[in-house]
Amino acid sequence: MNQDSRVADMNEQIKAQIIQNIKSVYDPEIPVNIYDLGLIYDLTVTDTDVKIVMTLTSAFCPSAEELPQEVQAAAEKAVLELNTTRTTSVDVVFDPPWTPERVSEEARLEMGMFDYDQENSRLDPWEE
Q: In this structure, what is the dihedral angle of CA atoms 100, 104, 110, 115, given to the nearest 10 degrees?
């Protein structure tokens, strides 16, 4: 196995561990972890950095300060757990805005969103 392959392997391990750690971060108002809620837009791991781009369910989210800090801590914990060094950063964006389409299938079932009509973007397909 060459050096590039080992670095790519380590980056994938770091990414998987970060995702696992982020799945322990919950929006206090919604009983679903923020990864399955679809708040993580991008997670990039290089040989020197971890960059996470995330959003919130609303620009007025009462947890707007805490959630990014918790994601940052989850990423840093993963880097430490794997005994490696990477600089971590979390950027919060609101474009594109979060929508319920980003929620994972598992989280939809957990939240009782099984009637969610993705095509028409509403929770109740019988509501006219």
A: 50
Give Dmax over CA atoms of the chain in angstroms. Answer: 60
The predicted-structure confidence for 27-77, as pLDDT tens digits, reads as follows 888 889 999 999 999 999 998 999 999 999 988 888 899 999 999 999 999
Q: Are 33 and 24 in contact (CB under 8 A)?
A: yes
CATH 3.30.300.130 fits 3-93, yes or no: yes
CA 60, 56, 47 angle in degrees (round to 5)?
A: 140
Q: Are 56 and 67 in contact (CB under 8 A)?
A: yes
Tell me which residue of 36, 12, 9, 11 sits closest to 25, measured CA to CA.
Answer: 36
Residue 113 vs residues 29, 35, 37, 110, 121: alpha-carbon distances, Å: 16, 17, 12, 8, 12
**CA–CA dist 115, 65 (Å, integer):** 32
Q: Who contacts 31 (Cβ-Cβ below 8 Å, separation ≥6)?
A: 110, 111
